[in-house]
Amino acid sequence: MGSMAEQDSTHQDARSGRRDFFRLGLARMVRPLAGYIESHVDLTGLRLYLRPPGALPEKQFLQTCYRCGNCVHACPVHAIQPLRGLDENLDGTPNIDPDVAACVACENVECTRACPSGALRLLSDRRKIRMGLAHAERRLCLRTRGEDCVICVEKCPIGNEAIRVGEAGRIEVIASGCVGCGTCQLYCPTRPKSIQVHIA
Questions:
Q1: What is the pTM of this model?
Q2: Which value, to the nearest 10 degrees, does the dihedral of the CA atoms of residues 113, 119, 123, 128 take?
Q3: CA 112, 114, 117, 119 torsion: positive or negative?
Q4: What is the pLDDT of residues 78-137, one digit of tens each?
Q5: What confidence tens digit (pLDDT) does each residue in 40-76 have?
Q6: Rounded mean pLDDT of 138-148?
Q7: End-to-end CA distance of the chain
Q8: Going by C-beta distance under 8 Å and a sequence separation of 6 or more, which residues neighbour residue 21?
Q9: Is 101 helix (H, G, I), strand (E, B) or coil?
Q10: Nearest-CA neighbor of 158 among 125, 197, 110?
């Protein structure tokens, strides 16, 4: 009969062997699925990032954008930043993170005027911006707890055409008016945010 140390080592080897067996089995199951998705699903057509105003559909946007940074420099509030450290399709493309800085839907939509490639279509009216759509999660909202918070309404650059306090006292996003700028998300005081922009 072996020592306690030898027995412990044997048990550890057995557990390690079982883990490796299941890990290998899982990898064998997942690998074909990943290959199928990669070969059958065009992920470049999916919009995973909040693009500046006037952005073409994602696949066209990625093919058209020069990654020149003109829109980044033109943004009056420095909300537009280039993506870094991603694959070559995404690296350098402009992105807005509303948790850091939101688009303010400036009157002249300066980023669209600065774009030389057409990846950002020229917009003459900021109300035509459609970056995404804000969604209010009522269970997280301070108003649901009886607090008179209206920060998202007050900060919205579009105003009551995009967001308001409804008759029931709840925050209401008006889909036809919301431009998806992310200002409401930026200033929302709850953690997690009770209002967030869903990417278009």
A1: 0.77
A2: -150
A3: negative
A4: 999 999 988 899 999 999 999 999 999 999 999 999 999 999 999 989 999 999 999 999
A5: 444 556 889 999 999 999 999 999 999 999 999 999 9
A6: 95
A7: 68
A8: none
A9: coil
A10: 125
> Which helix (DSSP H) or strand (DSSP E) does residue 35 occupy?
helix 4-40
Domain definitions of the chain by residue range: 1-41, 42-129, 132-199
In angstroms, the Cα distances linking 123 to 27, 105, 115, 176 are: 48, 11, 11, 17
**pLDDT of residue 36 exceeding 60:** no
Per the structure block, which two tokens stand in for 83?
A: 């993506």
The answer to whether 167 and 195 have CB atoms below 8 angstroms apart is: no
Query: 3-state class of 196 per DSSP?
Result: strand
Fold designation for 132-199: Alpha-Beta Plaits (3.30.70)
CB 160 within 8 A of CB 172: no
Sign for the CA dihedral angle at 65, 67, 70, 75 comes to positive
Question: 42-129 and 132-199 share one CATH topology?
Answer: yes
| Distance (Å, whole) CA 134 – CA 166 | 15
Mean pLDDT rounded to a whole number for the chain = 86
Distance from the Cα of residue 22 to its chain's centroid: 34
Q: Are 164 and 153 in contact (CB under 8 A)?
A: yes
What CATH class is the domain 42-129?
Answer: alpha beta
What's the CA gap between 40 and 110, in Å, rounded? 38
